[in-house]
Amino acid sequence: MKAIRRFTVRPVLPDPLRPLSDLARNLRWSWHAPTGDLFQSVDPECWAACGRDPVRLLGSVGPERLAELAGDRAFLDRLDAAADDLHTYMTGDRWYQTQSGTRPQSDQLPAAIAYFSPEFGITAALPQYSGGLGILAGDHLKAASDLGVPLIGVGLLYRHGYFRQSLSRDGWQQEHYPVLDPNELPLVQLKEPDGTPALVSLALPGGRSLRARIWLAQVGRVPLLLLDSDVEENDLGERGVTDRLYGGGSEHRLLQEMLLGIGGVRAVRAYCRLTGHAPPEVFHTNEGHAGFLGLERIAELGSEGLEFDAALEAVRAGTVFTTHTPVPAGIDRFDRHLVARHFGPDVELPGIDVDRVIGLGRETYPGGEPGLFNMAVMGLRLAQRANGVSLLHGSVSREMFAGLWPGFDPEEVPITSVTNGVHAPTWVAPEVLRLGARQIGAERAEEALTVGGSDRWDSVADIPDEDIWELRRSLRTLLVMEVRERLRASWRQRGAGTAELGWIDRVLDPDVLTIGFARRVPSYKRLTLMLQDRDRLTNLLLHPERPVQIVIAGKAHPADESGKRLIQELVRFADDPRVRHRIVFLPDYGMAMAQKLYPGCDIWLNNPLRPLEACGTSGMKAALNGCLNLSVLDGWWDEWFQPDFGWAVPTADGAGTDPDRRDAIEAAALYDLLEQRITPRFYERGESGLPDRWLEMVRHTLSLLGPKVLAGRMVREYVERLYAPAAGGHRAMDPDAARDLARWKTRVRAAWHGVTVDHVETSEATGTAELGTTFGLRVRVGLGDLGPDDVEVQAVSGRVDEEDRITGATPVPLKPVSAADLEGRWVYEGPLSLDRTGPFGYTVRILPSHRLLAQGTELGLVAVPSEDVLGTAGLLMR
After folding, report:
1. Dihedral of the CA atoms 143, 146, 147, 150 (nearest 10)?
2. What is the distance between the alpha carbons of residues 634 and 642, in angstroms, rounded to a whole number?
3. How would you write 430-470 as a 3-class SS string?
4. Distance between CA atoms of 649 and 302, rounded to whole angstroms?
5. pLDDT confidence band for 437 (50 / 70 / 90)
6. Any idea where the DUF3417 domain is (predicted)?
């Protein structure tokens, strides 16, 4: 029989155990090992059966066991210590507070930052993530908590989360969408003073409304607000808006993103009103899905009397936008008529002209489609500061979005980069943590993993080889046990009987070199590159002296048929009885699996099509556990690869390379590395009987690479390079300043056609000069209706290529030397230093200049010499 109504019955804890409820509701338990150990000791079997979820644990433990614990003095002492530790963690000063105290009043860090993301991977007990973007967002919140950064996270609560994955008998991906009950998750409802749920509401076409309640997940010190449209006040269609992560058609996705951005700002305002939390001075848009938040903030300022253009400037000043995809197909784009239908009179944001809304997202650059509304383009136009997530991705993003800044070389497009990091306490195995604590003490080990700040962890050098090797083997053993358990469960789901599964007891070997590969399965990540030469792969797996074993996991998007075919191809190979003890595919890749997979592997494999991997943080998590990386030079590996840390797979990414040939070349290079360099090093033994050269690489990975890949390092960079300047911009942009800047931009854009570089001359007329020479530059410019206070005239110099394009350009401002002449022309002068040898050139340009601009490229306006302007360029240095 099926129940006609469902309730969640919460346990009544004995008074001495009441602190367990507070500990369970703060997700710090998911990365704080002592608290996790405390919950495990409540009932180890139940803890495992509940998926290591303390909320479910406390709802499952019987009253007899609770009564027993309430009288257990040793347990109560541990409970009191954990509660006291959480109180200290929540209330004490941390890194951010010490930084704030050292800054002058005019340069104070933001009082609060709102961080918007469509998904958050905090813990497997709160399945609101699909892949790297969500895991990164979760790690960002955890690191901010550890550092004391006053972040407020904002997302959606998906009632089905992302799908659960299984396999059919023939290896085809199957999707399942279990229903999540928020009352059974580590969440509490945000409520009004009268006890009613706090709601946000959006106006929809046809007089309908989209309402959402606000759930609060406490991530250490950071509140995470999750909006849920499955409320009785909504009609059936609106109740399903937050049903699935990345599900539904265009309008469904548009409504999700309107709720995230517009509803999310309203949720933040409600949270601050109800709790007294400081209102955010900075809004961080993590990928374009949340871009509508800027429109809501413009509407807020409009209701206070600020005109659209001025409100836009005020919003931009305090907004940071992070792009995560180098693949145009990964960006949400909507038909502009669909977007227009949801804004304007009688729907959302009636005070904003619909054409202004559409203009923010239109692809009005060469190669763009003006009929589409691009969420990333809107995100960039609504943020004064933007970044990619690795150095290479920053470069790719500047190329990708260069059309928004015509006239500038891609390297000058105002998109910087902050390389991602990972939250070490979440991803480092407890066994590794214990070894570190034994070496340098628990407190120092925790600080090293959370705050970071050191370029190296020298204490790793003092750990004996024997201890490192024993640690690596024990982690490999734990992985083997995990794989066998998951593989057996998978085969039963595929219809196999117990009598068919005896071979699983011989799957993998704790003494064999273990390779891991786990990620989402779009085609560019090339799940099946390893299958290019199946005979060669088989020989590697079955080598009599130097075998390898491979553990693979990953999900294809439910609508991605080609990705599903790749999984099936891999699964069918792994099902072959000849090799199935050496290569396995594990379905339902998620955080719980990943936390066992990263530590247990010796090699982490990554072979995307370069440069389509924005960052690729899974290899970082593996590295923190002493796993070496084997990767194409893409994402973070392009930035930090050293031979000490692993191996780089050569790429064949020339413009004329056929894709199939490219795969064949790179697969052959991968096999070569495994056969000739990696397996010999792993199995080679030194005088001690240990693989000395392998352990040296493990040691270098931990000591030199480890500090770089920390989320603590990443969040500190966001604070120092993006949040602090954005907060300063926000404070400077009062209504008068915003109006002044908006009027100035309008005036400059209207007058820019009159800005010209008319004449350039130098004090040197020869085509060669000595290194270190400085000569004078004199430039005559026309400014039309503008004046010297509106512009900056620059000399731009550097090496030149065969086509006289300047590379590694250095801009130097020139100064006006007199008032305008009778023709309205101005003369600028300045020195030009020849500081590099070889072919050297310079040019002159004019940019808009205003004290409230973050950079001179912001308006996308530039004036350069015309072809007939006299001057000297391309000086040859010797």
Report:
1. 80
2. 13
3. HHHHHHHHHHHCHHHHHHHHHCCCCCCCHHHHHCCHHHHHH
4. 54
5. confident
6. 13-126
- What percentage of the chain exceeds 90 in pLDDT? 81
**Position of tokens 């918007």?**
116
Antiparallel, parallel or unpaired: β 164-167 and 548-553: unpaired
Provide the residue type at 703 as one letter: S
- For the chain, the distance separating the N- and C-terminal CA atoms, rounded to the nearest angstrom, is 90
Q: CB of 662 within 8 A of CB of 652?
A: yes
Q: What is the CA radius of gyration of the chain?
A: 29
Per-residue DSSP letter, 383: -
**Cβ-based neighbour number of residue 377 at 10 Å:** 24
Kind plus residue range of the DSSP H or E element containing 548: strand 548-553
783 membership: H or E segment, kind and range = none
d(Cα 666, Cα 652) in Å, to the nearest integer? 7
The CA distance from 568 to 81, in Å, is: 50
Average pLDDT value for residue range 798-821: 86
Cα gap 151→111, rounded to integer Å: 9
Chain-centre distance for alpha carbon 421: 8
Strands (E), 60-108: none
Residue 72 CB coordination number (10 Å): 15
40-49, 362-371, 439-448, 697-706: least confidently modelled range: 439-448
Interacting residues of 580 by C-beta distance below 8 A, sequence separation 6+: 503, 507, 574
For residue 650, what are the CA distances in angstroms to 378, 589, 664? 37, 28, 12
C-beta of residue 199 within 8 angstroms of C-beta of residue 234: no
Contact by Cβ (8 Å): 24, 55: yes
pTM: 0.95
Can you tell me the distance from the alpha carbon of 423 to that of 511, in angstroms, rounded to the nearest whole number? 29
pLDDT tens for each residue of 668-703: 999 999 999 999 999 999 999 999 999 999 999 999
Mean predicted confidence (pLDDT) in 648-669:
87
Query: Token pair 């050269």 is at which residue?
Result: 693
Instruction: Answer positive or negative: Cα dihedral of 280, 301, 334, 524.
Output: negative
Helices 442-450, 132-147: inter-axial angle, 10-degree rounding? 130
H or E stretch at 605: strand 603-606
Residue 586's nearest CA partner among 659, 501, 723, 493 is: 493
Both tokens of residue 203?
């106006």
Q: What's the mean pLDDT in 452-467?
A: 84
Distance of CA 455 to the CA centre of its chain: 22
How many Cβ atoms are within 10 Å of 209's Cβ, its own excluded? 12
Q: What three-state secondary structure class fits 367?
A: coil
Count of C-beta atoms within a 10 Å radius of residue 409: 15
Answer whether 675's CB lies under 8 Å from 647's CB: no
Structure tokens at 582: 């050496």
d(CA 156, CA 225): 8
812 C-beta neighbours (distance < 10 Å), count: 14
Distance, in Å, from the CA atom of 238 to the CA atom of 236, rounded to the nearest integer, reads: 6
How many Cα neighbours within 13 Å face the side chain of 164? 12
Give the distance from CA 746 to its chain's centroid: 35
Question: Which pair of tokens denotes residue 356?
Answer: 């202004």
- Report the alpha-carbon distance of residue 371 to residue 395 in Å, rounded: 27
Least Cα distance to 467 among 507, 434, 424 occurs for 434
Count of all residues that appear for the chain in the document: 878
Tokens representing residue 762 in the block: 């130098």
Q: Are 264 and 270 in contact (CB under 8 A)?
A: no
The pair of structure tokens assigned to 63 is 């009253």
